[in-house]
Design brief:
190 residues, mainly alpha, 2 domains, 7 helices, 67% helix
């Protein structure tokens, strides 16, 4: 599922700066409210219920995720030059925050945008998001077993698609010159 993007339309000459700022905020609110329309209450419930099932095993979940990711795309291993256990914990903390904020996309969106911009510097490319999504779905499938029904998968795919699209849009606007190609995942910012 994807969002309809708000069109960038130049402001008419008679609109002053404050009116223009209000218009831009309205456009942003429209995009953010689309996130809440993307997921039904049932999908939100399923995400929370299934996350609660894996939450006691988050460290293991993170390691299973990276094992699946590197199996799907071995070239991504070079982006993680440091402790993968630490990175697995950070990833699961970020996922926990996303699940907690699923009904407040206005809180989640700036965090995702920041992550998207930072991941440019780590060497992440747009094509990597597909592998990450597949690894996440595979991880959830392994950890949830028969509880990973098609309905549950659809709910998780919806939230992942929104998160990835948000990160990719922010990444597309990030300057490219500082890209190190090595995951800065060892920073305390994540």
């Amino acid at each position: 599922m994807t969002f309809a993007r708000a069109e960038q339309v130049p402001a008419p000459a008679f609109i002053d700066g404050s009116e223009l700022a209000c218009l831009r905020l309205e456009r942003l609110a429209t995009r953010v409210s689309a996130a809440t329309q993307l997921m039904t209450q049932r999908q939100i419930q399923l995400i929370r219920e299934t996350f609660a099932q894996i939450e006691p095993r988050l460290a293991i979940a993170g390691l299973v995720f990276y094992q699946r990711l590197f199996t799907l795309d071995p070239s991504l291993r070079r982006l993680f030059a440091h402790d993968i256990n630490e990175q697995a914990v950070k990833l699961m903390q970020a996922l926990k925050f996303a699940v907690a904020a699923v009904e407040q996309p206005r809180e989640l969106q700036p965090v995702l945008e920041s992550l998207g911009r930072r991941h440019v510097y780590y060497g992440v490319e747009e094509r990597h998001y597909e592998s990450v999504g597949a690894a996440l779905m595979g991880t959830l499938g392994v950890l949830l077993g028969s509880a990973f029904t098609p309905e549950v998968k659809d709910a998780w795919q919806s939230i992942y698609t929104w998160m990835a699209d948000t990160m990719k849009r922010a990444a597309a606007k990030a300057p490219r010159e500082a890209n190190s190609g090595i995951a800065g995942h060892t920073t305390e910012q994540e």
